[in-house]
Specification:
The model has no long low-confidence stretch (mean pLDDT 94). Helix 1 links the parallel strand 1 and strand 2. It is globular, with a radius of gyration of 16 Å. The chain has a single domain, classed as Rossmann fold. The protein has 136 residues and is an alpha/beta fold. The protein has a four-stranded parallel beta sheet with strand order 2-1-3-4, with helices on both faces. The protein is built from five helices and four strands, in the order βαβαβαβαα.
Length: 136
């Protein structure tokens, strides 16, 4: 058994991230699903769908929900399902975070949550030319 992963994002983000992560690591070692929430979506209907997806993904080890933007509708819906030890919700989904999660498929929910946060934060860098390298 392993932790399930659910991406809840704005349209186009979750499927693109999942597609890119799968191309980078060649396979998805964790059961993963994605729901994209349109601006005009019914929060109640979307919550019903999320509840069903969580039930499908939870194989006894819990579910990690990754959302794109804290405080936005996808994140607000996801936070309703947060349950310590069963469902963890993180905002700020980025590609380094998702790839890192997929590289630790045996991790428990708490460890996977920490790994995701570290991967997301460590994936952010300021990129600039060093002095003396010239201009591209």
């Amino acid at each position: 058994m392993s932790v399930g992963v659910l991406l809840i994002t704005h349209p186009g983000i979750g499927t693109s991230m999942l597609h890119s992560a799968r191309r980078i690591i060649q396979q998805c070692p964790l059961q993963t699903m994605c729901i994209e929430v349109p601006v005009d979506a019914s929060p109640e209907r979307t919550s019903d769908t999320v509840a069903k997806l969580i039930a499908q993904l939870d194989q006894g080890e819990g579910v990690l929900i990754l959302t794109d933007l804290f405080g936005a509708t996808p994140n607000n819906i996801a936070r309703k399902f947060s349950h310590p030890g069963r469902v963890a919700v993180l905002a700020g989904l980025n590609l380094p975070m998702l790839v890192r999660v997929f590289n630790y498929p045996q991790a428990d929910l708490k460890s996977l949550c920490n790994t995701a946060v570290q991967g997301g934060a460590r994936g952010v860098h300021e990129c600039r030319l060093d002095a003396g390298q010239g201009h591209a």
